[in-house]
User: Fold these one by one.
Assistant:
Number 1:
Amino acid sequence: MTSLSDAAAPPRFLRTRALVRRMFANRAFMLGFVLFGFICLATLLAPLITRLDPNALSIRDRFQPPSLQFPLGTDNLGRDMLSRVLYGARLSLWIGLCVIVLNAVFGVLLGALAGYYRRLDNILMRIADALMAFPAVLLAIGIAAALGPSAVTAIIALAVVYIPRTARVVRASILVVRELDYVQAARAAGATDYRILMRHILPNCMAPLIVQLSFVFAYAILSEAVLSFLGLGAPPTVPSWGILISEGRSYLREAAWLTVVPGLAIAITVLGLNLLGDGLRDVLDPRMKVEQG
Amino acid sequence: MIGYTISRLLQAIPILLIVSLIAFGIIHLIPGDAATVIGGPSATPADLARIRENLGLDQPLHIQILTFYANLFQGDLGRSLLLGIPVTEAVLARSPITIGIAIYSLVLTIVFGLATGIIAALNHNRWIDQAATVFALIGVSLPNFWLALVMIVLFSVHLGWLPTGGYVPFTQNPIGWFRTATMPAVALALLQAGLLTRITRSTMLEVLSQDYIRTARAKGISEWRVVGRHALANVMMPVVTVLGLILSVLLSGSIVIETIFGIPGIGALLGNAIASRDYPMIQGGLFFITAALLLLNIVVDVLYTSLDPRIRVTGGK
């Protein structure tokens, strides 16, 4: 029984060596990989790149323009911007990571329930429609405004906003895959719903999910910056990129680098993730469409 | 046509009901006692009791929901704690400003996005195409509020061309309006223009490879006419489909952008409400914007069906 349904299952898409080769041949993917990899590496190696404490005050050195001693200058309290941007990356990336993990778990769960159990579909999708009717950032702002400013709040707010979008993508691909012959075969062979879903359907829905998650990561970084900028993200003692921009805003005239630098960091990260997503979409399935916004 | 419009409006009702329920629920997401959070640390017990009574928080939940809907159907979204006036009144008074800038931004988005996308597609794989693709990618990757700040540094602080902020009503002084509205509109437009460029480019490439385009060219029609008359009609369709998304990003972006430029529209109204924990205003603003977007989306879909006969025949999506 088991061997029959196993034989019917397609090979897991990640196992193919050809796929890796296609990824390396894809310019968008490689560029995205390099940009995003650069940011991740810089974030991980922050203590090696800079010895300065991101919160160490030095009034004597305030508003220093970029120099050898302070490669990205200093802020109004003489704190080193390079280390603030590098340590700020940790929070921004960490929030993005938490959001996509929550998205993966709940997006797959809800998308699978809606796509596989048609009775649940209507109600789940109506709720998703309503959540998606709100402009993404606006709903996140509303939720964060109620829950109070913190990093956890930002994660919850952004997860709530993007999970319906991910669930939609998963549901859409499940609706296609569940009608394929090999799934019927597995069902005829007597496989349980759980087994069919986990072993036969979901592995084939991974490609659109992964592409979607790379875009959600990008949106999460952008939206987190908006939340922090409005004072709804992490408290200002922990610098995230959004907070750095909003702090720099008061000194646009005398020290524009305080605003420009963290924004560039966001732009490089989001650009990298967008390129990764584009590249993955081309490599995994050129016909695939991902819900934006 | 009318039948389709009515069915779309009917479909929107359950969504609108859930949307309003979510907006209503926001105040109940506040951890602990909402009145304490709203009143702040200096609130006396009497203040707290007054806040609870004003917001109906002293009533059981089901009564609160019923009151909320009873008021909603009369167009009453509650009273702003900060301004002391009805939320509906405040939102309606501010909306012309936001709508004006949104339209300006939308025009910039469509003109720029379409033009770049079409030019890129016509020069497929040449350097113009690559430049347009890179521009579009960078456009969708920049935080719009950061772009707004960089523009202030460049055009206001260094070049002194435009004021750093403020707002002049169009009816008072059109030139003043353009001077104050241009940077906000551009900041809001860039991201969507990037999105639109990408969509226009890929659709145009697809359309240009179709048989009827080859036929048109074979007939000896000028390239200008082939693109302008034969291809453009089909390229417009995806533009209409993303209109809803573009409007949604425009309106949510207005919170930060209006706050930065000091423009007294709905966005700044909500930004202030967030800063001062004016929850009725947050809930009302959220509901108002979302309801407006839902209606706009229906208008877009109806427009879409009337533009594209193929959809009309199959009876909508």
Number 2:
Amino acid sequence: MTVQNPNSFRNGPDETGHFGLFGGRFVAETLMPLILSLEKAYDVAKNDPAFQEEMRSYLTHYVGRPSPLYYAERLTEHLGGAKIYLKRDELNHTGAHKINNVMGQILLAMRMGKTRIIAETGAGQHGVATATVCARFGLKCIVYMGAVDVERQKPNVFRMKMLGAEVVPVVSGAKTLKDAMNEALRDWVSNVEDTFYCIGTAAGPHPYPAMVRDFQCVIGREAREQMLEREGRLPNSIIACIGGGSNAIGLFHPFLDDKDVAIYGVEAAGHGLSSGAHAASLTGGRPGVLHGNRTYLLMDDDGQIAEAHSISAGLDYPGIGPEHSWLHDIGRVQYISATDSEALEAFQLLSKLEGIIPALEPAHAIAKVCEIAPKLPKDHLMIVNMCGRGDKDIFTVAEHLGGMD
Amino acid sequence: MTIRIENRFAKVRAEHRAALVTFVMGGDPDPESSFEIIKALPAAGADLIEIGMPFTDPMADGPAIQAAGLRALAAGQTLIKTLALVTRFRRGDAETPIILMGYFNPIYIYGVDRFIADALKAGVDGLIVVDLPPEEDAELCKPALDAGLSFIRLATPTTDDARLPKVLTNTSGFVYYVSVTGITGSAISDHSQVASSVARIKTHTALPVVVGFGVKNGETAETVARGADGVVVGSALVEAVRLSLVDGKATAKTVPAVVGLVGELIEGIRRVHKA
């Protein structure tokens, strides 16, 4: 073990699961013993070379890692500034970064002797990844999905069913992602013996935010090495979109102590921050407690959680991972936002210039690249996390653009 | 420390029976009907009253209490109004213990110190906050205890002997044993386990142990009363409210529906003589 640098941004969370004010373990007593045993099991696995080797092997041969770091030449020329690289996590099996985390959690679940896996999903990408890995290992899989999202994301519902998962439409509350998470927690409270809750983002009670981050950090570690190999130096800036923020923390974390690397997180501004219809928890919310952690949340003056809005179902969540809240407050990461229409423009631009159809989530990051990159010198190296492919979004985009003609 | 909870358990013990702890949602189905329901509870047979503080995302609650919370929010309930409800109740009843039950976020946003002060002023005796386990005691539990409010903890079947002392350390008033691993409204599968679980908890504490989850009528109340110091009923009462509504609005049947069920529950409890 190396001695920890007290000035590092990478030491969190503390023993009680806090990143400064944020994080913690705000769960019902029924779940507390489960969370404590998960923490213990993860601590052992994390330091077990056999677990790490098993993980590495599946990431290589099943997921398809490492993902390429691709120089987006035509986008760079078009914008006329910074040299832009795309970290191609959309090329992973199942088409997004989600499977990095799912693989880790499912291998851990099996070490813990759990046979029943539950998950929540919004757009369906985490649900598909969970259903996929459960199929691979012959585990029972139940995915909770808001009834509204089941309707909006039919292809992914079908994919999950093909993979043998049971998809449960959630009709409580607002019938979207936050309600799916409530329902998954209710399932866990009711099935404590055999069930493992595979959370899809770097949020929830400790140890989830740290564990999911660790599993996603493969993105940033690879990108760092690849950039050093390609350009002989670190990037000047890195940028990723944020809903709960697992792809972003996975890219950011290995760079947090490289103080010359500027880091940007892009939240979903929906119809615009002043419209009230957005999903930008950091820019438009305040600290509160939901789903097991303290973090920035969208809510009213009575502490009632508000509905988020984004054209991207994957960013449509009224909270954010607690480590992002901390990085926001200490100023290490700059959090900005992109609207629905900016994301739609970026979606089309990248498709036409690079032959890469991005998911609507990373399209938010691309939108901000279009704003930032032209003002930067040509020797400025920038990495954008391409965390998902856009196949799932083509119908949504077609609807907004008024058809495919 | 307010002494209403202790006094009430002493009175119930003197009557050689278990206590009836009733849960209703503050502001359900509307502020005025909610007050009428709560005002009628003591005479109907309730020994202690838990008032739910509605929250949009009640992660540990089943469909009945979720729906009750959403009805209350739709009718404009807020934490300020729930505290006002207690103030109004106290004008006519100085003895029945009132416990506020809910989730942390609305309290956190209201401000912990301000909430504790306003709750004491309104006449609240205790708090149950579902998503604050002992690991988060610094947030609300300790300041509430210091100020004289009871902080009632939930113990569950997953709380083993190694963990019980941690759960019970900063608990006061009584212990709420959640008899099933499940959400509110779940049925108890094995009543015989209730008595042995209560006995297990009692080896760690002198506080009364009340048992909830799955009590629906006089018969189940009677069964649970055999093994516990008190019986908690929540989902069945908010369901009685729901079934009395027409187009979501309270009717002349709303208060009597709750009062009738409470009467049946206390009758069941009284059938069990406690030594």
Number 3:
Amino acid sequence: MREKESGTPALEALNLTKRFGSVTAVDGISFSVEEGEIFGFLGPNGAGKTTTIRLFLNLTRPSSGEARVFGLDSVRNSIEVKSIVGIVPDVSNVFSEISTTANILFTASLYGIGRKERMSRMQDLLETMGLSEYSEKKAGQLSYGLKRRLAIAMSIVHSPRVVFLDEPTSGLDVSSSREIRELLRNLKYHGTTFFLTTHNMEEANELCNRIAVIDRGRIIAVDTPERLRREATEAQVIQVEFNRVLDENEQRQLVSLGPFHKIVPMKDSYKLFTGDPEEAIECVFHFAFSNDLRICGLNTLKPTLEDVFVKLTDREASFGSHA
Amino acid sequence: MEVTLDAGVPQKPGVLSELMKSFSIAIKDMKIYYFKPAILIFGILFPVAIFFAFTVGRNVDASALFPGLIALTLFFSTTTVGPFSMPWERLNRTFERILFAPVSVSALALGKTISAVVFGLIMSVVPLLLGILFFGSRVSNAWVLFLGIFIGNASIANMGTLISTFGSKQPQNVMLLLNLIRLPMMFMSGIFVPIFELPHWARIVSWFSPVSYATDLIRCGLGFKDYFGPLISSLVLIAFGVLLFLACVLRMTAWNRGD
């Protein structure tokens, strides 16, 4: 297990801004991540998550502000920064034409790891990642899940102090996602710092020590998953199912009747966000009675991270909450 | 067995380590691209077909055709690997994988150039051997011939790498741009007609093509009349190589800014 160094944060963003022409992808964000933390960066597509990672790696230059890794400026000390970070991008960008081992060995050589050490790390990684039986197979012939594992192996071959994971389980089936999350949990125990971007609420909840919610390039909250949920008291939810679908007028009427902040139509039901569930339930019954509707189901739900996001951004979550 | 994530120590860029990374990139390119059909077609078949299309039926000694054939093969083979591999890797985002690593832009450009040079060297030696073994070519100045093939490859390979930094991420579009530049250049570089036999205006144009100097050295090395002389040709080729390499580094640095 890695020992913690002096109080220098593993990652630090200081008023970090990135503009592409008239579009501001990252808008003056500031945060710090302590060594050994799994820090989640949660937000919908286009919120600025990937751009933030690229700024930390100097793959794109900030318009203003600074990104630091263990106190090293990502622009001025680009090579030093890259030598202590690993990145798992949103796509498994492995070299399809060469074998699994050749991919790992080539990546290790880019980090200046000697031949003997390269071989030893490659063997360890093949075992850890469950890739031993595919070692001589060309990477292009691996399944999507195995390519993802290979991409993770390539990103940690140099024992990085910080690993950026950009949507690590995106596009994976449930079982592969679970395996990848299990792998990440194991790696966490070695004291590595993880910066995880995701739009998957459950993943963030399950893995992260702290979560930053980012929307339209701005950080709108940073806290532990539990505290975020607790603070979102107004994001309590009643889920109600009627015997028929409500039209837009009826939905508006329902919201105006009680202490509701928002109504979100689901597949067969409606999610009603409220700060007072008891009064809200009474209003639902009253609405059903006056509109000659039958209530087929009624549940009160603990706020999920998705609900927190809806409350924080005051808009409907535009991303899934699949596990 | 578990992977131990040791405390990583930030690396400082060093010349030797950067050179080793360049070689790693070059070896990876050799494994992946040398046998791609597009490389073999544009790098070998294309120049051979063009050469014979323009020379068959001419009433000249077969050995007199070989300096041009060697120069054309060198030109096409050494400028094919970079313009194919770079857009291919950008398209598949594997190029990004190299940018994630602590590799300087110059080491990356050098790696791409080394893989192109080695391919060009191998391909240029094939017509040379064919000429010597079967068509009566003879080496009259081995050093000059070596300089022509080696410096020629090293210099012109950078042209291919530079072209690969322009335009789209689609290999076919970059190859199109490459051929738009290569095809007129081959007529102005003494490949089919020696430079001293070209009209005055074409001779002036030939000064601006690095291929002219490589062809001139190869002609001299194989005992044919040269135009610039070995010293000037070698120095100009080196100058072209350095300028083209710097241009590649500047272009790739601009990419790295991601703007």
